[in-house]
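User: For documentation purposes, I need each entry recorded in a consistent format: the amino acid sequence on its own, followed directly by the corresponding structure tokens. There are two entries in this batch. Please keep commentary to a minimum and don't merge the entries.

Assistant: Recorded as requested. Entry 1:
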Amino acid sequence: MTTIRLWDLPVRLFHWLLVLAVVGAIVTTKLGGSWMAWHERFGLLVVGLLAFRIVWGFLGSSYARFTRFVRGPGAIMAYLKGRWQGVGHNPLGALSVLALIGLFGFQAVTGLFANDEIAFYGPLYPLVSSDLSGTFSGWHRQTEWYLYGLVALHVAAVMFYTHVRKDNLLKPMITGTKVVPQGHADDAKGGGAIAFLVSLVLALAMVWAASGELVSPPPAPEPAPQDLGW
């Protein structure tokens, strides 16, 4: 047996920061009131994290790249028949990764245009009509339950692999390393400092755009006519 470098630090930070951001978004929306400002901040953090992970999926280290673990139906069938050999995300787990990124992304984007019909308005609310914002708000609320189900399925799969198949998926996401048979896999390669900076800059640019900084402020209301006593 030998120990390889599997998950790079950016992937691990993305994973755990996304957990914290999602928990924070859920808690603050349940508290409501002034906590909705923090709900928006957590939502923007989710936007930035997802943007970073998508870019890192092309520029990051070998096991973090989409081309490494996103496979077609043939690879999925081979995995289900027990003929798949590899480390990192397996072909079936890749579908879970893509579903989580897609659904979290949909939830975050709809939240940018949503409102709570009381006092909260998403940072990009001025870009859409009131009716369309209401539609986004409905989608935003409904998607929450799909996310709960998908996250529960994800956690259940991790527990199954850890306790039934004796393949601890959680530990490598903490330490970055994994023990594998000699010659079974190589260390992760690529994803250096330049790739990290490019991914970070693009993610920050996405957060800046999503925060509404590019949206023109609404025009000032017309001053009320003054009664001059004439």
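Entry 2:
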Amino acid sequence: LSTHCPDCGTAKQAIAMQTLAGLRDKKATAKELCADGAKGLSTFMSYYILKAMSEDNMAAALQVLRDYYSGMLNMGATTFWEDFDLAWTENAAPIDEPVPEGKKDIHGDFGAFCYEGFRHSLCHGWASGPVPFLAERVLGISIEEAGCKTIRLRPDLGDLDWAKGTFPTPKGVLTVSVYRDGDGEVHVAYEAPKGITVLTD
């Protein structure tokens, strides 16, 4: 399979998958994916796109995450949607308000392919890409041994000052806190359940 790398055009999903499969240069691809911000992002593949972006530019990936998902929240979302494009927000009414005359209906007037009109779900599992992205890339949680017996922490705060989160394991919840001090040095603190070894670099 590695002998053939088809042209992806501008499809960020396909570009990200080729990058993560080792078929594209990570640095070049990160620049390509970040060039126009959240344009072309998809809820369906957001995890892979953000991961590929963050391989070389975590700050840019975090900004795309902010722009795209806050776009949904600003339109009244309380859960993440199956389909979304930032361009839809122009002259559109939030989903939690009646649509006034002269405004677009963010749910009924948009969508693509089989998601046109009211066909797309407003609470969809494939829009949950930020959850593993934040745990794995920002907090840097990596399972090193089956059953989470050994977990490695390699956080990347990008442009953040701090991040904190929890991660479920078979032995209980791992809590990780990462912060940058006044000198810019990153510090990691954690509380791990008994029976789990945590490695930090």
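Summary note for entry 2:
The helical segments are 12-20, 26-34, 46-54, 58-74, 130-138.
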